[in-house]
Amino acid sequence: MNLSTFRRALAKDANAPLHVMLPDGDFVPAHFHVTEIGRVHKEFVDCGGTRRESTACVVQVWVAADTDHRLTAGKLAKIVELAAPILKDDDLPVEIEYEAGTISQYPLGGMEVTPAGLLLMLGSKHTDCLAPDRCGIPVLASASPTAQPKGSCGTSGCC
User: Fold this and answer.
1) In which band, very low, low, confident or very high, does the pLDDT at 144 lie, cut at 50, 70 and 90?
2) Beta strands 103-114 and 94-99: pairing type?
């Protein structure tokens, strides 16, 4: 989900309490705080030697001991508005950063209005080879017994 869609959904249901559902169906405790909203830009070289970059709006959520705390969609919309000069681009994908043992970033997969409030549904991120043609990784069109599993490197030595 991009930032403009996220902002519209927050503004549309401003009084709705927020709920965050992790990819496994568990929920971030309802008393979470939003501690940061930022523009995160990453420049890197893939295993095939191609320079790449990615940019996202990252919303960090944190759980404290104040179990009576609740964040509404409108309050989060105001925080996002304060971050607008930093974010610069409404087309940025939105990711939620959350720590439950380890810090993880989840793409915001969707939002849904429910009787309990506004549900933020998080997706999963995965690693992948960005240069399969240069690394000798075959495209798995079918379950071929000679095809390498996705993510394994060929004989080119690129990774």
Assistant:
1) very low
2) antiparallel
